[in-house]
Specification:
159 residues; mainly alpha; 55% helix; binds heme C
Length: 159
């Protein structure tokens, strides 16, 4: 048997072999915590249920200690890509850790939330492409921005 017969088939065979090979590499650890999050801002003390639900569907996968993992995130290279976004996202902003920080830092993160939303930079486009429930309407974006602004104003008075 002539193997592979044509260059196109050869390329496809190599691609498939590589795809299968990377599935065998270890998956990055998942972002999941059972423990109660005592430093979380995601609490009814700080936001209405509506804002909490919006953050849950559009932000928390990358900005909290608990991400949802749809089946395709178990497939490489999606698993690595997802893990990278979660690590970077949590470094920049973690709603479950925000109360650990100084009031000053909390204020600056709330400012940053309003800025990112105003510039249309968050949630990431690569994420909303797949997660339809994370696409925010203008009204929903404005609601989160108003929440961030009003909480910031309250914290400003404490500073
Ligand atoms: C798919 C992952 C993902 C989602 C979903 C996401 N973000 Fe982000 N976010 C990131 C990453 C990664 C960064 C780090 C900076 C960068 O790479 O752009 C970031 C940065 C930020 C920052 C900057 C923090 C700083 O240091 O000032 C803010 C604020 C932010 N995101 C808010 C949000 C809000 C609000 C939502 C929901 C409406 C959201 N993000 C949804 C991944 C995400």
């Amino acid at each position: 048997m002539k193997w592979p017969v044509r260059p196109k088939q050869k390329r496809l065979a190599i691609f498939l072999l590589l795809f299968i090979a990377i599935q065998l590499l270890p998956s990055p650890p998942r972002n999941h915590t059972e423990a109660r999050q005592s430093f979380s801002m995601l609490s009814p003390r700080f936001m209405t249920d509506t804002v909490a639900a919006l953050l849950q569907s559009a932000c928390n996968d990358c900005h909290s200690n608990n991400s949802r993992y749809p089946w395709y995130t178990a497939v490489q290279p999606v698993a690595w890509y997802t893990a990278r976004h979660i690590t970077k996202g949590k470094e920049a902003l973690n709603f479950d850790e925000l109360l650990r920080y100084s009031t000053k830092k909390q204020i600056s993160k709330l400012e940053s939330i309003a800025e990112q939303l105003n510039d249309g930079r968050m949630p990431l486009k690569s994420y909303t492409l797949i997660h339809r429930d994370a696409r925010l309407s203008g009204e929903q974006t404005a609601l989160i921005m108003r929440w961030a602004d009003s909480l910031r104003t309250i914290l400003d008075t404490l500073e």
